[in-house]
Amino acid sequence: MRGIWRRPPPPGRASFRVEGFSPPPTPERRRGAPKVVIVANEKGGVGKSTVSALISTAMMYHGARVAVIDVDLRQQSLSHFFANRRRWLPAAGVDAPIPLEYKLTEDTVALADADPASMVSVFERALVLAMEAADVVVVDTPGGNTPLSKSAHLQADLLVTPMNDSFVDFDMLGAIDPVTLKVLRPSVYSKVVHDSRKRRAEYGRQLDWVVLRNRLAATETRNRERVGAGIEALAQQIGFRVAPGLRERVAYREMFPFGLTVADLSFGLRPAEVSVPRRAAQEEVRDLLIALRLIEG
């Protein structure tokens, strides 16, 4: 793992490409340094790509110039989402913002099998250019502890960790006493974040870590209450913030083929197949952005 990039690397030929960009509805560029948002959790299947897509699209509607990088080289879910968006919008005759997308390579599987130094070098160069072009850079990461994921954590100004509302997912953050259900100690992923914080501190940089409870059931349950208590206790112990949760909504999944999120939905932009309580879902996403301190309340 290398240092924290804040300046362009030496000139050289990049192995990634940049997909097209269309300006956001409010085109004023924000002042100050760009914010690097890493969406990560070593646990798979927690909704990292969905959350990345939600943050990216919602921030464009709040006037931010957004860049995205998908470092999940095998699944490429976020890249597929925005590829769907670039195809569906013109086909439907709809105008909506599209972020800059920095694709690390045409052959992501080959890059996944490359040596770690090559992977990290390509990512860091893409990140530098994304930071020069955007106000917010959203990076979607794979499950597991890969070289690219480690590098992404080191670059994070804001780390967003989605987790399903269960002790199966909580186990990646902290160990639980099976008798009392009290938090015993931080677990493996919490240690990864702790190490990243220490490395960033060497460069005078902070890492704001936010845990997001995802796919919440509509009704309160005893398990949900216990998980919530565990998260709050662990937050005080190791220093992360807890964002308002995202409810389990079919719309988050059924709009993927169109490259849309609830942030896009309006009376003039809604695929015929999608039916969603629009206002409640959009307020939920807005509350998330406020909790992440990406917008003001």
Automatic annotation (TrEMBL):
<dbReference type="InterPro" id="IPR050678">
    <property type="entry name" value="DNA_Partitioning_ATPase"/>
</dbReference>
<dbReference type="Pfam" id="PF09140">
    <property type="entry name" value="MipZ"/>
</dbReference>
<feature type="region of interest" description="Disordered">
    <location>
        <begin position="1"/>
        <end position="31"/>
    </location>
</feature>
<protein>
    <submittedName>
        <fullName>ATPase</fullName>
    </submittedName>
</protein>
<dbReference type="InterPro" id="IPR027417">
    <property type="entry name" value="P-loop_NTPase"/>
</dbReference>
<dbReference type="InterPro" id="IPR015223">
    <property type="entry name" value="MipZ"/>
</dbReference>
